[in-house]
Specification:
alpha/beta; 13-stranded parallel sheet; 5-stranded mixed sheet; 14 helices; 42 strands
Length: 782
């Protein structure tokens, strides 16, 4: 496609084209005008940008404060999106100054977090005169109203203990009960019930939705119940495809563009699903805003036609066994819903499971479905799909978020695009990798689903066995990526090993050609979750120019099991100096210094020898060692040959969180958090800036603006992989860790979220928009 804005040469009369081709060498005029076209194109682009800069929606980021000056609003720094939204809504927010809806919209614009505002004076108890009691605020007696039942909280009354769904709201942002006055001074994260206080509850975790994923079946079991209406069989499922505990979240349904503005409602926030609210028969239960059920045709192949609801959890039941069984929506309803503790589901349920009943434990991500026959249970075990929502701090690791479309070319070469969809072919990934070494153009494999793809590298056609291990041989760059909104899981039966198809040439000319090919040979993984029951690392060989891992999760293990113990840690990379060549001539002919790049990735230990180069950006490297743990044998980054005695590669680090020891040859970087010792062999080179070191056992190069554990306390909300707040800095951590990193923001893997700027911007705007006398209390919920 010709992207030139001013094709001067094509506008010339044809006689000049003929004369230009007659010159020696030909095409001199074409080449000259090509240079002029670039300059004229830049001028045209600048002129078009001037028109875009007239509008806040399309202007460049540097123009935002100038448009703000025209509106008389003060300048803010941080995320350009929030600054743009703040200026765009300036007039609307000034019109609604002092209203709850206005404060919520302002807060969302500045943070993009979930938000709910509560006037705490409305939750204060009333001290009544004995002769003039007003539990009904002067109206009809409350218990005489048709809208009031014995489960309804009455202001000035006692707490309702009869309904778990109502009681579950106690102490939450939607607490309906009355509280005594709290005269203590406002404190961050604390709710002080008093007349001037306005509580602003914030959900900082982001909700991610996995679409049409197959849960891990726990089998179909006979219940032994014979009473009418009871389920004869129970189908058990772990929501997470790998059988790990997962906290189920609801989706956030706040729309800042709604007119008139609407305050966030209960059951519409991006937080964990309360188990008690799933009880369908409860007065205050509201399961339909958390869960939905609809059937689908498993023989249809493509599941793009699935009707995805707005709720946090949706069950897609296979037809024809469950044809037409939609919930909610049918009258009378086919299904019944309840929440329960399913940690020990083998022991049965109380009350007993009913036919067409769905029992959900949102705390650990387990589901039981009661059915009346074994064929129905087996159909669920084979074909049930789930769309579920979970929470995470931000886009570090593999998440089903927005993603750019597949590249049409790679480094100037057109690519070969292969699309994989598990619902069309469960073995599609392996087939896409077959004979990949025969292609003379870069290969892009895009996975368009969120299923588990089992892959045995030894079963790939064209794989070669070297040193008793299967290797994927490549002739051109290979890119394996997730499609927009998907998070595929690749379960490896053996570690991944990559090598060039050919390394050693028979002539000098052939060797030069091979060297040029290998110098561009790249394997790039995007948006994938790599796991597998493999002995050793997930990637054991990278004889390439570069291995790029972007927005992926190399399953590190270390998650908390149901019994409270920590799962074993799994190595992610183990790359040795020999590059895996069994032939000494090939090893000598391989001239590359492979570069390993991890960006916004969660990984386990990276054991890499010094003949590689390593680059880490906005990533978490987890060796299973938390703050205060003994990490003497817990190496997050070190040598693959001898982790304790040798040194890892040269490292470039930008915004990383490292749980475990790190031993590298030399280092440059900024914005890192080293929970345990960082040891650098050549500490006379390189520099680390605006970072945190544990202060015990460190061997550091020159550093600037850094803090040490001996003087600054480090705390995380969670140090366990798989928890929603994994890697999130706690608000009790030292302020220098949270605010003195690069760009005056947080250190660590999530510094790019600019949360410190968000907190400061909130304080600035609240001083301008808060009514006189009202005190805002910021209360993080997640």
């Amino acid at each position: 496609m010709d992207k030139r804005r001013v094709p001067l040469y094509e506008r010339l009369p044809e006689i000049y084209w003929i004369k230009d081709e007659e010159q020696r060498p030909p095409g001199q005029l074409r080449s000259y005008l090509a240079l002029v076209e670039q300059s004229l194109g830049a001028v045209h682009e600048n002129i078009e940008a001037l028109y875009d800069d007239l509008f806040i929606e399309t202007c460049d980021a540097w123009v935002i404060p100038y448009i703000g000056d025209l509106l008389g609003t003060s300048h803010l720094s941080g995320d350009p999106w929030t600054s743009r939204a703040d200026v765009a809504d300036t007039i609307a927010l000034r019109r609604r100054k002092g209203t709850l809806a206005g404060i919520e919209r302002l807060t969302y614009n500045l943070t993009r977090w979930g938000v709910h505002c509560v006037e705490l004076r409305e939750n204060l108890v009333w001290n009544h005169h004995l002769n003039h009691q007003r539990p009904d605020a002067g109206g009809d007696p409350p218990y005489g109203l048709t809208s009031v039942t014995r489960f309804t909280p009455v202001r000035g009354g006692t707490v309702v203990l009869r309904d778990p769904a109502v009681l579950s709201l106690l102490g939450t942002p939607f607490d309906p009960f009355a509280h005594v006055t709290d005269v203590r001074p406002p404190g961050f994260g604390n709710v002080r019930y008093n007349l001037p206080n306005l509580a602003i509850f914030l959900w900082r975790l982001r909700d991610y939705r996995v679409r049409a994923s197959q849960p891990l079946s726990g089998g179909v079991h006979a219940t032994g119940m014979t009473t009418p209406g009871s389920a004869t069989f129970a189908a058990r499922f772990d929501v997470h495809p790998l059988g790990e505990p997962v906290s189920l979240f609801n989706t956030y349904r706040f729309d800042p563009d709604t007119e008139p503005p609407r305050v966030t409602q209960v059951d519409e926030t991006p937080g964990p699903i309360p188990r008690a609210r799933l009880l369908e028969g409860s007065e205050a239960g509201n399961p339909e805003v958390y869960l939905a059920v609809d059937p689908y045709d498993p023989t249809g192949g493509v599941l793009a036609s699935l009707d995805i609801a707005d709720v946090g959890l949706q069950l897609h039941l296979p037809e024809p066994e469950f044809a037409g069984e939609i919930w909610p929506g049918l009258d009378p309803e086919v299904w019944s819903i309840r929440g329960a503790n399913l940690c020990a589901w083998e022991g049965g349920l109380q009350p007993p499971l009913q036919d067409r009943e769905i029992v959900v434990d949102p705390d650990i991500g387990r589901i039981i479905v009661g059915v009346g026959s074994q064929p129905e249970g087996e159909a669920l075990a084979d074909h049930l799909l789930l769309t579920y929502t979970y929470g995470s701090v931000g886009s570090v690791g593999a998440h089903p978020g927005s993603r750019a479309s597949a590249p049409e070319e790679w480094k100037g070469e057109p690519v070969v695009l292969k699309e994989v969809n598990f619902h069309q072919d469960p073995d599609g990934l392996r087939k896409a990798l077959d004979d990949v070494h025969l292609f003379n153009a870069p290969v892009v494999i895009e996975i368009g689903d969120s299923m588990v793809h089992e892959l045995d590298p030894g079963a790939v056609s064209g794989a070669v066995v070297e040193a008793s291990h299967p290797n994927l041989t490549l002739n051109r760059t290979l890119i394996i990526r997730a499609a927009e909104g998907q998070r595929p899981i690749i379960a490896l039966e053996q570690p991944l090993r990559f090598r060039p198809q050919k390394v050693e040439g028979s002539t000098s000319d052939e060797q030069e050609e091979l060297d040029a090919t290998i110098s561009n040979l790249t394997v790039r993984l995007e948006g994938l979750l790599l796991t597998g029951e493999v002995d050793g690392p997930l990637v054991a060989r990278a004889a390439l120019h570069s291995l790029e891992i972007v927005e992926c999760t190399l399953h590190p293990g270390g998650h908390r099991s149901l019994d409270g113990t920590r799962a074993p840690i799994r190595q992610s990379l183990n790359l040795k100096d020999s590059y895996g060549f069994a032939n000494s001539n090939e090893e000598a002919a391989f001239k590359e210094t492979p570069e390993v790049v991890l960006q916004r990735t969660v990984a386990g230990p990276l054991l890499i020898d010094r003949s590689y180069r390593l680059s880490l950006a906005d990533s978490i490297i987890d060796a299973g060692k938390g703050v205060g743990d003994d990490a003497q044998d817990g190496f997050a980054v070190s040598s693959a040959t001898d982790a304790a005695g040798e040194w890892g590669p040269h490292l470039e680090a930008e915004g990383i969180t490292v749980f475990g020891r790190m031993r590298v040859e030399n280092i440059n970087g900024r914005g890192g958090i080293w929970v345990h010792a960082l040891e650098v062999l050549d500490n006379q080179k390189g520099c680390i800036r605006f970072s945190y070191f544990c202060g015990e056992g460190d061997r550091l190069p020159q550093n600037l603006g850094c803090v040490h554990g001996t003087e600054a306390e480090l705390r995380f909300v969670s140090e366990y992989f798989g928890n929603p707040a994994y890697g999130q800095l706690a608000h009790t951590a030292d302020f220098r860790i949270k605010e003195r990193g690069p760009n005056d923001d947080a250190m660590g893997a999530f510094g790019f979220l600019l949360e410190a700027h968000k907190w400061r911007n909130l304080q600035i705007r609240y001083r301008e928009f808060m009514p006189v006398g009202v005190k805002p209390l910021l209360v993080p919920v997640t």
